[in-house]
């Protein structure tokens, strides 16, 4: 085994790495959910249609 393996310090570091890596997909899903809920309001504020906003989002992601 590697030196320090199994210690509380390395276990805490592993948890931090796991939490950081898990936060990415969670935040992406949260962003998509919020955008899907608010897309009609955004379209009305921008003076366009929902289809226009969806096209802009699609172009921004690619």
What's the total helix number?
2
Distance between the termini: 43 Å
Q: Percent helix among the residues?
A: over 70%
Structural category: mainly alpha
The parts where pLDDT drops under 50 for at least 5 residues are: none
Report the biggest beta sheet as strand number plus sense, adding barrel if it closes.
none
Beta-strand level of the residues, as a percent range? under 5%
What pattern of helices and strands is seen along the backbone? Answer: HH
Alpha-carbon Rg, integer: 20 Å
What coarse outline follows from CA principal-axis ratios? Answer: rod-shaped
The total strand number stands at 0
Mean pLDDT: 85
Write structural notes for this entry.
α1 runs antiparallel to α2. The longest helix is centred in the middle third of the chain and has 39 residues, at 8-46. This protein is 82% helix and 0% strand. It has two helices and no strands. The model has no long low-confidence stretch (mean pLDDT 85). It is rod-shaped. The protein has 62 residues and is mainly alpha-helical. The protein has helices at residues 8-46, 50-61. It starts with 7 loop residues before the first helix and ends with a helix.
